[in-house]
What does this fold into?
Amino acid sequence: MTSRLLATWLLLVGFIWLLIAVWVLIVMSGISTPAVAVFLLLITYFAGPVALVVGSVFVITQRYSRIGVLLAFLACAWLTWMIGSDLWPRVPENDAVAPMQYDWLSVALALIVVTSDAAVITMWRAHQTPTEFLFSYGTLQLEGVQMATFGRLLTGTSDALLKFEQVPLKIEDQAVIAVSGKAEHTIAKFTGRASDIISGTVFGLTPDEIQKADQYEVDACKRIAVILQSGVRAWVYVDAQYIP
It folds into this structure.
């Protein structure tokens, strides 16, 4: 949820940036400029905001979110360079530092840069540092489900859940069926028997990705913390009616 709020702010910044770029282009349209210079001007003023808008949309829609964060990061770096170079004090010919004169627009642009950089850095850290483990024995192991849910392919290791057995679970949520392609999943039911073992994969996820997994799973499942066969402490979705 935090990443989506931050991405919404960056989306707004991207649209403001696009409006400014259009205004600059309109102003420049009355000036005779070589074609190469016009092409470079278009790249300079429009590549950044377009990348920021596209990246923000990826994060908000939770599709290809890591690519979205990367695009937003590069766009904000470009925005910082553009605005920072305009606000940096100039050195006149006599080598004396020119006084820095700020108007309300300069202050507003500086605030936008600072808040945008803080937002994208927060999103970058959230998407680049897995701090949680999730054990999957079902459809979250499928590449298509991973791309639809997390916007990336997960890397994991084989592990096992002890004292649980898998039982069929009929899925009625059409959105889940559309993603997994299956109307029947399996769910882990606690038995307490040492002979019951469920094999699967343990993945490293970020807190935001854990929330995305919560949205994917149906109401019959409950996420609990368990100790896997390897000794790793991880989250797992189990039958809410049979919790140890």
Summary: The longest strand covers residues 197-205. The CA atoms of residues 70 and 126 lie 12 Å apart. The helical segments are 2-28, 35-60, 65-87, 104-128, 143-150, 174-180, 207-216.
